C-alpha cells in the first residue's frame, strides 16, 4: 500500500468516525436518554445532553487535525514537525475533554444528580480519553524526533 492509498483509507476512517459521532451524539444519546431517564433525573435531561454535546467539540476538532495529518501522509510528508504539532494538539484536546468530563461528573456526583451506572460509564470514557492523550503525546514526540532525523539525513549526501 502506497502513501496515497494509506492516506485515503485513513481519511475514510475519519469520515466514518465523524458520521458515527453525529449519530451517537445527536440521535442515539437523546433517544436513549428520553427512554431510559429515571423519574428522579428527568428534569436533568437537557443539562446532561448539553454537557455531553460539549464533549463533541474537541473530538471533531481532533478529527480535523487528523485529516491534516493524513493529508501530509498522502503527500509523502509523514514525519514532519507539522504532524508532530498536530498530534500534540490532539493530545491536549483529549486531555482537556477528559478534564471537562471529569469535572462535570464530579459536580454531578456532589449534587447527587449522577446515577451510579452513569458514573461507571463516565469513568470508562475518561480513562479512554486519557489513554488517547498519552498515546498521541508519545506519537508527537516520536514524529518530532523522526522529523529531526529526516532533516539531518536530507542535508547529508
Kindly describe this structure.
This protein has 5 helices and no strands. The chain has one domain (3-155). It is mainly alpha-helical and 157 residues long. It has helices spanning 3-36, 45-54, 56-74, 81-110, 116-155.
List keywords for this structure.
157 residues, mainly alpha, 5 helices
The helicity comes to: over 70%
Low-confidence stretches: none
**Which of globular, elongated, flat, extended, rod-shaped describes the shape?**
elongated
Number of strands: 0
Number of domains: 1
* Mean of pLDDT: 90
Secondary-structure element string: HHHHH
Query: What structural class results from the helix and strand content?
Result: mainly alpha
Largest sheet: none
> In percent, how much strand structure appears in the residues?
under 5%
How many angstroms separate the termini? 28 Å
Annotation field: number of helices = 5
Gyration radius, to the nearest Å? 19 Å
Amino acid at each position: 500500500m502506497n502513501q496515497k492509498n494509506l492516506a485515503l483509507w485513513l481519511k475514510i476512517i475519519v469520515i466514518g468516525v465523524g458520521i458515527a459521532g453525529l449519530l451517537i451524539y445527536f440521535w442515539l444519546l437523546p433517544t436513549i436518554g428520553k427512554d431510559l431517564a429515571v423519574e428522579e433525573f428527568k428534569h436533568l435531561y437537557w443539562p446532561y445532553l448539553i454537557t455531553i454535546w460539549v464533549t463533541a467539540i474537541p473530538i471533531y476538532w481532533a478529527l480535523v487535525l487528523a485529516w491534516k495529518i493524513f493529508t501530509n501522509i498522502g503527500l509523502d510528508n509523514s514525519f514532519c514537525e507539522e504532524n508532530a504539532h498536530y498530534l500534540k494538539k490532539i493530545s491536549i484536546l483529549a486531555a482537556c475533554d477528559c478534564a471537562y468530563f471529569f469535572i462535570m461528573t464530579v459536580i454531578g456526583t456532589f449534587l447527587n444528580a449522577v446515577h451510579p451506572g452513569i458514573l461507571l460509564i463516565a469513568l470508562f470514557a475518561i480513562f479512554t480519553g486519557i489513554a488517547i492523550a498519552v498515546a498521541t503525546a508519545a506519537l508527537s514526540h516520536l514524529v518530532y524526533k523522526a522529523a529531526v532525523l529526516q532533516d539531518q539525513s536530507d542535508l547529508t549526501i
